Q: What sequence folds into this?
């Protein structure tokens, strides 16, 4: 690129016009900030698509709209995908696969308007599609020296290079003989007996990084059972009102805190939760019927038009302490006294580590509950960078300290028009292992490390909730050596899996024995060097 060239700023957005309309003012402000920064560096900008007065936003909201926008751009022109809210990566992934010019994914770093979450999704999705690109993020743009230096680098060279000193290839690290024996034994059992991964309608919300090549995953001993959302709804219709009410009664007796209202359009009401209890039974029936080891339900788009939210169901499945469900065909209680790894939004890149971590925890006699979270935001607390990990409701009550510390709120109506409850709470302090599986440039990979959930003062905790989504479950996590710029430079998803306890060595050994390319991130790698 040379000074005076035009750089195209692409506004990619949500599928849902209601969300795009709400988010447009922030996107408009971000576009202006980025345009100012590029003008300071000597470049012109053109924003695409143009603002649509009828829709009240200027986002790409469909894949066809992305294709139409890119058809008007020189295939060799530099493009910046500007992200200031959640956006569906597949809207632009197709055009970017054939684009020949430099590609930059650029996001704000903000909890309320989580462009950073969209950036991580877009970047991991493009890596899965083997599309070269760069990443960049900021909370202050022109006032951010790191951002301006990296943006100038991109304008000069067509790429941004971030330090990757915080990640190490596990093949270069040392594992104890005991960890290697453990990993070899678990991997051998997986290869012999298989672990069938149940995935409902993959590709939810444009997260192409959540879709793993079934050939590669099957070769690692984890074949995929592709399931249909319509079959889940059909099975829900076979669950009686009495069975659903029995589950709800169980939760009430356990002390779960339901925040009831009377207006079904704005509040949590009885009928919504009864539908969720039917989904819970239906998911377990399907789990048993297909001999699954895990299951992922992607709620948005299809199910959101049919039934209330799946999130309370997901938190129940991920928890050891949950209502019993008897399989109507065999009469047995399904997976009694076990947590069933449920990967929110059908994200297979979370399902893989959730399954492996559960099995390692079980073998070591440790609590087996896991969950994925969005890498939603973060900021300093005292001398530590503390991440806000947040998800729409699928975290298990065990992570909060049990059902009495679990709150069920109505899901936000902008995203969940038919309502339904969350499974919400504040994750308790303690040591965690974290992980993320992904496919990049044809390889099956796993990133992992350790960290700590931090117990924050009430005012700081509430401020973090208020700046994100206050009705969703939160984990405030410090990962030594994996702070803002480190994670944003290399993390391969908008999601991260956590479980309580340090099982890093066993997880690394198991993944390597299964054939994954493994990286250990943050200061945890130093303990293995």
A:
């Amino acid at each position: 690129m040379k000074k005076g060239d035009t750089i195209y700023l692409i506004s990619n957005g949500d599928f849902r016009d209601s969300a795009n309309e709400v988010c447009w003012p922030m996107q408009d402000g971000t576009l202006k900030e980025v345009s100012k920064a590029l003008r300071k560096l000597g470049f012109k900008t053109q924003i695409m698509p143009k603002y649509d007065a009828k829709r009240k936003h200027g986002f790409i909201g469909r894949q066809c709209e992305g294709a139409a926008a890119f058809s008007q751009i020189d295939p060799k022109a530099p493009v910046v995908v500007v992200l200031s809210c959640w956006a569906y990566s597949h809207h632009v992934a197709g055009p970017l696969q054939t684009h020949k010019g430099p590609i930059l994914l650029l996001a704000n770093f903000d909890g309320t308007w989580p462009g950073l979450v969209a950036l991580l999704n877009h970047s991991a999705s493009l890596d899965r599609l083997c599309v070269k690109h760069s990443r960049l993020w900021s909370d202050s743009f022109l006032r951010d020296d790191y951002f301006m230096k990296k943006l100038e680098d991109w304008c000069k060279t067509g790429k941004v290079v971030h330090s990757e000193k915080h990640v190490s290839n596990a093949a270069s690290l040392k594992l104890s003989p005991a960890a290697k024996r453990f990993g070899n034994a678990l991997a051998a059992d997986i290869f012999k007996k298989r672990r069938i991964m149940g995935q409902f309608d993959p590709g939810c919300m444009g997260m192409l990084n959540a879709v793993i090549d079934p050939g590669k995953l099957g070769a690692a001993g984890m074949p995929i059972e592709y399931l249909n959302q319509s079959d889940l709804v059909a099975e829900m219709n076979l669950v009686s009102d009495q069975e659903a009410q029995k589950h709800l009664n169980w939760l009430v007796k356990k002390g779960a805190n339901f925040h009831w209202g009377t207006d079904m359009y704005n509040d949590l009401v009885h009928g919504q939760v009864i539908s969720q209890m039917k989904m819970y039974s239906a998911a377990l029936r399907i789990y048993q019927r297909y001999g699954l080891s895990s299951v992922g339900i992607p709620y948005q788009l299809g199910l959101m038009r049919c039934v209330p939210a799946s999130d309370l169901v997901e938190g129940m499945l991920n928890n050891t302490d949950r209502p019993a469900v008897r399989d109507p065909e065999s009469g047995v209680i399904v997976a009694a006294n076990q947590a069933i790894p449920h990967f929110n939004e059908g994200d297979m890149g979370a399902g893989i580590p959730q399954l492996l971590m559960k099995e390692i925890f079980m073998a070591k006699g440790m609590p087996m509950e896991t969950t994925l979270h969005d890498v939603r935001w973060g900021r300093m607390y005292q001398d530590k960078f503390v991440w806000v990990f947040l998800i729409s409701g699928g975290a298990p009550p065990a992570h909060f300290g049990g059902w009495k510390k679990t709150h069920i709120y109505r899901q936000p109506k902008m995203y969940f028009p038919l309502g339904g409850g969350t499974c919400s709470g504040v994750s308790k302090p303690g040591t965690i292992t974290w992980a993320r599986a992904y496919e990049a440039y044809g390889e099956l990979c796993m990133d992992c490390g350790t960290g700590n959930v931090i117990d924050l003062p009430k005012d700081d905790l509430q401020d973090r909730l208020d700046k994100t989504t206050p009705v969703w479950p939160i984990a405030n996590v410090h990962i030594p050596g994996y702070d803002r710029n480190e994670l944003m430079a290399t993390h391969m998803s908008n999601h991260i899996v956590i479980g309580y306890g340090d099982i890093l060595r066993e997880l690394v050994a198991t993944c390597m024995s299964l054939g994954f390319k493994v990286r250990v991130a943050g200061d945890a790698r130093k303990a293995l060097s």
Notes: The domain at 171-528 is CATH 3.20.14.10 (L-fucose Isomerase; Chain A, domain 3).
